Amino acid sequence: MRLVAAWLLLVVFLQVTGVRAESSAAPPLQFEYSSAATLSGVSGDFVQVSARVTNVGGQALSDVTVYLSMFNTVDKTPVDLEDWSAQKAINFQGLPAGQSQAIDLSIHLVNPGEYSLVLVGYVPSADTPTISRATFLHVEARKNLNPGNILVVALGTPLALAIVLRIAPARRRVAQ
Amino acid sequence: MNGVALIWSKDMREMLFSRKATLSLVLGTLLYSLASYLILTNTGITLLTQAEALWAFSKTAILVGLLVVLVESSASLASEFESGTADLLLVAPLSLRELVLAKVGVALTLWAALYLVSIPYVIVIATGTGATFACLAYSAVVGTLAVGALALPVTALGLAFRSVRNTLVTSLLVLLAFAVPAFFAGTLSAGGVGTVLKRLDPVQNAFAILDNVIVDNNFSVGSNAGDLTSLVVFFLGSCVVLAVVVLHIERTGPVPPAGP
Question: Does the beta-carbon distance from A83 to B29 stay under 8 Å?
């Protein structure tokens, strides 16, 4: 009886102090993509990554977060998603057993290069997140010599100014 | 033609029609071209919106104007004293305040010329923002106030120092002191002192007004009243500083140029 009471007290103490027992189990989540495994585009384009996350466990999950993680496969460095995606994480307050939720993320292709992107499923009760298979992004540099039709003004204005400022004094000298 | 107009006309002719001056003006325009090209290239790639691109260009245009006008203000009056031509001018029926007025007029005309040159760029970059006219109107007003707010004290410095080199170095430091916090407003304006400096800085006020107008589409004068008031107060203060220096020198008489 004392042992049971001590165990209960210990459990209450651990709950109150926020100490959790170690758990290495991944959450019972499964990702299934509807978008292609390899996406490509030009800098400035938007591509859509679509998938479904399913609770394949026997119990409902009360708090599920799915977030993006992106990696430059050439530089071997993680990518700061600041400019790449307006929505970096999606939170579901409740995912019943056997149910799934759609995930649609718009990715803004910024820098040219080769990237891999994964979706990470996180629930607070599990220490090991669930990671989806990778989606590969191939981004080509945008080649536009006349962005916003500025080329005529950018070249023409200095040229026109130079001509005006050189011709005006010459005409003045001729007139004199 | 009165003395002010005569000096203004002579200086403008020298500035616009000499080979060196033409080169510097064309180079200034090329800077506009480069800035607009790079900004629009990035607009197609990053999340920079067209309105933010227009704001970035407007800031660049004002900064180029400030730089050119401050260099001109530093050199114009001080060089007359350094080369001894000021003495000749002041012997003629021309008062010191007329000479100063002509030089200030030249500096502001230079700003007006740079502003006019920037108009085609603004029209192209502003496509689709619906803020073309507002951007041009506010840039003209706040640009003139900001340029005047810094150019008038620098003219006073030139009058006091009578040395191009010293005036130029000081004026560039003044420009850096006001422009650097304006470009790093997010990191340097935190805290009480930063907030006070932000309120006083004419460059920051000008940029904040343009941000409010171009990016946030707050076109009314009332919605920009705070920054506009600060800018006007600084400009009037600069007028007072220049007037005090001119009156002081007129009262005490000319002093010999500094240095050997």
Answer: no
